[in-house]
Amino acid sequence: MMTALSLTLIMMAMSGSATALGIFYPFGSAAGDTFSNRSHNGSSPLVPLLRLFPFFGGAFQQIYVNHNGYLTFDQSLFQGASPSQFPLFLNIIAPFWADLDNREKGNISYQQYTTGDVLQNATQDINSYFPNVNFTATWVFVATWDRVAYFPNSGTETTFQVVLISDSNLSFIFMNYGDIAPPSMEVEIGYDNWEAHGSLRTCYPNNTIDVVNLHSSSNINVRGRWAFATSLQSEGFSCGYSSAPGIFYPFGSAAGDTFSFRSDDGSSPLIPLLPSFPYFGRTYQQIYVNHNGDLTFNQPLFQYVPNEFPENSTRDIIAPFWIDLDNRGKGSISYQQYTTGDVLQNATRDVNSYFPNVTFTATWVFVATWDRVAYFPNTGTETTFQVVLISDSNLSFVFMNYGAIAPTLQKAQIGYDTIGSSHHVSLRTFYPNNTIDVVNLHSSSNINVQGRWAFATSLRSEGASYDVVGVKLKVSSAENLSEDEIEERILKPFGDLLKKRGIDVSDIRLRRFYKTEL
């Protein structure tokens, strides 16, 4: 027993360390860090930078690592118990601005690099998260708060890191998070400047940062890491995944997209499809990208209040995020289709991975992306999502990819529907009280890929209306259920489970049942 207990404790310690090192840049004694003095509400001395760091129009040759979880350039900032909310119109980078105290527990350390593996890793990371730039890091600055306590709760431990990266022209910031102790105080996370500012408060409901789960959050699909471009040539703050290639197919100017014009409740013009797209027994040669988050085939749809699926209407529709959106002041809506190249290879791989019972080779892909588009009338919001249509002219599939979705009280519909609703899926059925948890779509899935939902959207063979599959279920119940109760309480939940796997079960029905006394 003693041996087993010792082994368990060692494994737990190794697991905690590995989690931090997975996304953290090198830090501590092994990295040759300089350790800041132990003081409450203190700061490092002035740290001369080996290279100029461009930050939204300015360029700085020095920095201060302030103990309460932020960096400043002009002077140290001895801010006590309560951080100020951005914007402050100060030059400040705050990976975790809170009342911290390293006098008894934890270390605050920093290091900068101009050569070596750290620069290579930074170069690789930047080009991965921001594929529209061609970047080579020439300087990296790393500051780490390792298991530092809150004041006055000396028994707490909080670990995070900020990484500044530059090539003397462009600059970027990573904020990396390990274990964050539950705080009993306000916290501010983000950056501020006269030209720009961004706060993670805007990415969470009620402007309350979910600090305990920072280690599993991200805007680039890397758990525990947030990345921002911080030079005027770059994009700046985003809650979403618009620069993350992890689950999104290529989009935007770099992908050669066509951009839809700016209008409230608008639509793209008719888009001729290069090959036809099979969709549950019908074949379409044209499509419309409607600004309010849906695709239709026969005519545009300007409706901003979504209907619930099943609609039982006279239209086929694919709705990655049907809600009242407005791209006039913020964001872009763009689309592109492919018949050759890497996108088809990736689609082929993805479909065969998610649907292993088919042998599939994509011959056509259509990608439509809503990048940081605002809700109407809330122009300060940003919502990012994408829909991908894939076909080999016989079979078809739809992927719905989600970045950060701004909190909203508006009604949203997500899924697909067909003429007469013979085939339909609504994500409402997967959430409590039929209310879609839109804020967490980026971490949800029916295929075990965070932020992606995948559906098969064609009938398997022409001339047949259904793929008929018989399933025999053995169910134990203390109640004497009627046939209607079996349909409602057993078959319906079973059908919902199959829908989560992308299997259309609109016509699941009970053929026969037998009752046996136990």
Which keywords apply here?
518 residues, alpha+beta, seven-stranded antiparallel beta sheet, 26 strands, 13% helix, disordered N terminus
Write the layout of secondary structure elements.
Layout: H1 2-23, E1 34-35, E2 47-55, E3 58-66, E4 70-72, E5 92-97, E6 100-101, E7 107-113, H2 117-129, E8 139-150, E9 158-166, E10 171-177, E11 188-192, E12 197-199, E13 225-229, E14 258-259, E15 271-279, E16 282-290, E17 294-296, E18 317-322, E19 325-326, E20 332-338, H3 342-354, E21 364-375, E22 383-391, E23 396-402, E24 413-417, E25 424-426, E26 452-456, H4 483-500
Antiparallel strand pairs: 1-7, 2-3, 3-4, 4-5, 5-11, 6-8, 7-8, 8-9, 9-10, 10-13, 11-12, 14-20, 15-16, 16-17, 17-18, 18-24, 19-21, 20-21, 21-22, 22-23, 23-26, 24-25
